[in-house]
Amino acid sequence: MILTNIRLSVRFRWTLCLTNQMVKRVKVSAPGKIILSGEHAVVYGCPALLSAVNKRLTITQWGDKKKISSDIPIGCGMGSSAAFAVASSALNIKLKGKKWDLEEINKEAYKMEKRQHGNPSGGDNTISTYGGFLWYRKESEQLKIFSPIRVKIRLPKFYIINTGKPYESTKDMILIAAELKERKPRRFENIINKIGIVTKSFLKYFTNEEKMVFSELIKENERLLEDLGVVSKSTAWLIRKIEKIGGAAKISGAGGRKLYSGILLVCHPDEEKLLNFAKDEHLNIFPIRLGEEGVKNEKTN
Ligand code: PMV
Predict the structure, then answer these.
(1) How far apart are CA 145 and CA 220, in angstroms?
(2) Is 166 in the pocket of ligand 1 (CB under 6 A)?
């Protein structure tokens, strides 16, 4: 009799354990990003300066149920697809009971990004994995160099204006740049080299190696992206208006040529003036914090 009870309680505990394991919640999150400088040029081996931002995508899984929530605008250059790839890769690692290994998470996320975007530089998934600020360079398919940047200045306040989801995909925009390379190789090379130089200036500004007027760097970068043909006429027009009221703005990410160009990274010394302008123009504007944490193994209750 006693023996049967013991056997029963052991079996009962086993069942409980299994049920607990089945409903165990696993939760991970990954941040969106902005490219401060170097988009498109980074595809051709130039450096890019990237930052993780305070917009995140979270995946929670329990049993066979999965919930994805995100406050990263989709398909607008804020790295929503990379955040999804990084969070999915991190979730797989957790579900398989493997070690939390950023290199492994990033590697798997890059594979997913390649399936979706064709020939991405790998910058988006790398910043979403590691977070903070990163100097990123793709030397070859096998060798991607990146280094965290310690920002040594007081950062200006940044805003994002979302001009809307471009009709073109990132892949289309990379092809648009590639067409210019084909048609006008000298002009293309000139633009790409200049973007490389501006990106270095951004780096020196952030590390306080050289004093610079940040808004001028943003403007210069934007002009070069317009020369590359990745900014629509209406977006360029909007950016000129922002400049006229004393601000600076650039597209961040692949851009868009037909009508919408995704997000703009905006700064202005007079916050009220910028917000009033955005209100009058019915723009979708929000503040953004840079240098945020990368992929996170979230606690569940
Ligand atoms: O728009 P996004 O977030 O997909 O950024 C693309 C940036 C490019 O430099 C155009 C492409 C890349 O893979 O780096």
Answers:
(1) 25
(2) no
